[in-house]
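In the laboratory, one determines a bound structure by crystallizing the protein with its ligand and collecting diffraction data. In a computational setting the workflow is compressed into a single prediction: the sequence and the ligand go in, and a structural description comes out. We illustrate the idea with nicotinamide-adenine-dinucleotide.
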Amino acid sequence: MSTRIPIGIVMNGVTGRMGYRQHLVRSILAIRDGGGVPLSDGTVLWPEPVLVGRNEAKLRDLAARHGLTEFTTDLGAALARDDVQIYFDAQVTSEREKAIGLAVAAGRHIYTEKPTATTLHGAVELARAADAAGVKHGVVQDKLFLPGLRKLQRLVDGGFFGRILSVRGEFGYWVFEGDWQAAQRPSWNYRTADGGGIVVDMFPHWHYVLEQLFAPVRAVTAHVTTHIPRRWDERGAAYEATADDSAYGIFELDGGVVAQINSSWAVRVYRDELVEFQVDGTEGSAVAGLRACRVQHRATTPKPVWNPDLPVTDAFRAQWQEVPDNDEYDNGFKAQWEIFLRHVAEDAPYTWDLWSGARGVQLAELGLQSAREGRRVEVPELGR
Ligand SMILES: NC(=O)c1ccc[n+]([C@@H]2O[C@H](COP(=O)([O-])OP(=O)(O)OC[C@H]3O[C@@H](n4cnc5c(N)ncnc54)[C@H](O)[C@@H]3O)[C@@H](O)[C@H]2O)c1
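The predicted complex, in structure-token form:
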């Protein structure tokens, strides 16, 4: 058996949806179930989580359920442990900045959910502080690791599209109001004061997807609204939904690519997946979801003629071709964790850092400004 190198990770917010399911169970515990992260020198990195939260009983229960022993409600004490190298944050967004600040001050490497802070100023300060402290840092950018987007990336890298013209993204589903059926997302997402809103939630995702797959975003025009103004919380109490639940955004990218992405928690799904991107280029087009990706090459593009007097005879969807997997796709959160852990342990290359996270927060902030002022807003380079 290969030598196991333990790496201590303070995991804060593990009682939450993302912290528990995606990061603890499907990433860190799944990595352990799979035998750890193999390093290039033949040893194996073995993550040792220290669970942190506000409720000791919940932490104890959670730890026991998964055969873990280390948990505490004292973040400072967890960060001070000499067997801990990484701080991970999946708390509600509004609590993140403070906690990451403490972890940086304690000299721990940082891995965090997005958005990295509630303001651009805060996000930039965190990135600067982490650089100044010489710690490594990473931000969850899970969508890049989804099979559908990896296939899209493969098409871009292979030059399938020719000159890319436009990207059309459609994201969303109906989030129940909470009165006659319980809401399927936490209520803080619908209150601005608690760090909620679809723009701060989703624009950071769109930012890294656009920047990584296509080109940097240079301008944003957004219309943002709250379609459902009253919702019911986890206890069944009515509350005013102060945060935006829908955003209609146009993003101008380098090279003239226009990306238009609708994000909504007030839309019913008539699509194959909860998010889909259509990319049109001079040589071909693709439609990618979370898992699937379909293409149409210019040579197989049909020539529809507009005639509303005749019934439709073309089966348009049937004219597209499925992009094969040609690879095995692991859980995206786990895949990114493994890359980050190797980055910490043996300096393996890593791209998605707190600066990238800050650019995502910037796009959200400028999107909200565009909506408020009813105008197009340019995206300046972030000063380090
Ligand atoms: N990468 C993604 O696709 C993705 C998806 C959803 C959410 N997120 C991000 O993950 C983070 C957590 O979201 P979630 O949906 O898991 O939320 P959640 O409400 O399910 O979990 C929040 C966690 O924060 C903790 N917490 C700490 N201080 C708190 C406070 N003052 N009030 C309430 N909770 C507090 C809770 O105990 C819980 O563990 C958010 O920053 C969100 O933006 C990312």
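The chain is about 30% helix and 25% strand. Keep in mind that any predicted model is a hypothesis to be tested, not a measurement.
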